[in-house]
Amino acid sequence: MSAQTPHIPLIVSVDDHVVEPPHVWERWLPERHRERAPRIERKGLAGMRHVGGGTYELQFDDDAPKADCWVFEGQVYPHKRHVAAVGFERDDMTLSPITYEEMRPGCYEPKARVEDMLMNHVEASVSFPTFPRFCGQTFLETDDRELGMACVLAYNDWMVDEWCGDSDGHLVPLAIIPLWDVDAAAAEVRRNAARGVHAVCFSEIPPHLGLPSIHSGAWDPLFAACAETATVVCMHIGSSSKMPATSADAPVAVAATLSFGNAMASMSDFLFSGVLVRFPDLRLAYSEGQIGWIPYILERADDVWQEHRAWGEVRHIVPEPPSSYYYRQIFGCFFRDQHGLSSLEEVGVDNITFETDYPHTDSTWPHTKEVAEKMFSGLDDDTIHKIVRGNAIRMLSLDLT
Question: pTM for the full model?
């Protein structure tokens, strides 16, 4: 007798992505900045090789296949098929140029996105940036801080008022911040929280971006603002622009397999930083990091705290076992992780959330419900509800029944 198919309630996906439409900064920037706004140009792309951390070697040729490219501050950022992969066959999800006309409209049109969500059994979705990168580090790299700040504000205004504005709550806003100015970042968190935004992007390992570490105390004004406004700090894999790698000539599949490594390192950082002690209402989310690694890191962190906290320099700043702060304040995120689900007691049924990763190559769209039914077979209804919906509603302060 076959196992009964589990009931999957409507899903709240905490990690999807938006391919920003061409007009974002030309429409939303103040007029004095529009001449230097990020803009789309169509270019022939003869070669593209990923060299790590979101960096590519590019070869342009007018006669080559066309890519729609963001052009900003002398840099060119082409759209790639594997980033707008939904609708293509698996073996066609390649590192190759793509134009907006070749993408599925749900990549960049909010109405089409909601339609694709609903056909995929998804009620609400959080979308990470594409051109600004996963925590807005594109604007960190500009020398003109006034322009960078204007681009951050324009993106957030577009995100709130246009991308999410008419979606009837199906699209959940996720803000970016000016990473170079912590006080301005805290102010931007508060500005957006006042209009219902309760999620912000942050880098999993800020020093990889040339920024202060979380141990320095430099980020405390930001963490205070997030704690005060119930804004969850969302750290996507790759938001440090440096992914785990073994060698320059290893296939990208090696880095993809190790992609959880930065989330693992970042969580270890936070558990021993004292940040979660000082800000007990702060919530962290590790987006697309998966969850199967979490039980061992918690075990190891607790063991280090128990045996080595004196010479390990954390005796005075972490008064309780590190795992206690994880269970109180941290969320993991996954889309396919059978091992993690087999370790639910250690991972914490109240600490995990679900995603579809639309429109990337990892996306389970349009079969997310079927994937969930297979993965969650044998789990009770209350547990499934928490994983695919309830925990995300609580984490994001959503008003969903």
Answer: 0.95
